Amino acid sequence: MRGVFITFEGGDGAGKTTQMRLLAEAVKRAGGDAVVVREPGGTPVGEAIRAVLLGPEHGRIAPVAELFLFPASRAHLTEEVIRPALDAGRVVLCDRYADSTTAYQGYGRGLDLEFVRRVNEAATGGLVPDLTIVLDVEPREGVAAASAGGPDRLERESAEFHERVRAGYAAIAAADPARVRVVPRGEVDEVWREIVRLAAPVLERAGLRIDGAVR
Ligand SMILES: Nc1ncnc2c1ncn2[C@@H]1O[C@H](COP(=O)(O)OP(=O)(O)OP(=O)(O)O)[C@@H](O)[C@H]1O
Ligand SMILES: [Mg+2]
Known about the structure:
The chain has 215 residues and is of the alpha/beta class. It has a single domain (4-204), classed as 3-Layer(aba) Sandwich (Rossmann fold). It is 53% helix and 12% strand. Helix 3 runs parallel beside helix 5, helix 4 runs antiparallel to helix 5 (113-124) and helix 4 (98-108) packs across helix 7. The longest helix is centred in the middle third of the chain and has 25 residues, at 63-87. It is globular. The two termini are 29 Å apart. Residues 12-18, 145-147, 187-188, 191 line the site of adenosine-5'-triphosphate.
């Protein structure tokens, strides 16, 4: 049986890492096998691409170069890690995926959305998550919460950029409501309860019954 592919999206500091850790633990308690990866990164090649993309010392990167670099990491991660894990029946939790490129390079940078869609399709080979959870956050609140060690190259973007990204996620969810669900900001356990509500039926199809304990 094919595994389950769940991606987490949202602005910086929205709480993706926090909620993914809770979900990975719930999957393990249910007897499942969770693989947790992040984008860009998740492989040695991907982490090298990540260092190029997020290093503040790199300043401006031409928008189209940025558009190709994120999916370059994604293509490698998809082929090397995500597809093999899904083929082995595992649960893959991915911190950002193709929707980040649509939100940041499409809506944030203003690159042509149809072009972005084609680049994403090439990078993923058409692999689409079973469920995408967008954690909504006020950009100011998120950027303040993000990144111990100082803001990365994208976190340094303007408030207007982060507002366009947020609006982009809302548009992505509106266009694909069966897959993409926006979870409003709240206390960690409130957000977690909503994620359990959304993820439980998807994991149930793979025979996994998760509980909502917060450990
Ligand atoms: N619902 C929440 N309410 C308030 N603070 C939160 C919430 N969720 C997470 N935090 C805190 O906000 C900070 C960022 O959370 P986390 O690292 O999970 O976000 P992220 O989306 O993974 O961020 P990044 O973009 O830096 O990867 C952490 O200090 C975390 O403890
Ligand atoms: Mg994180």
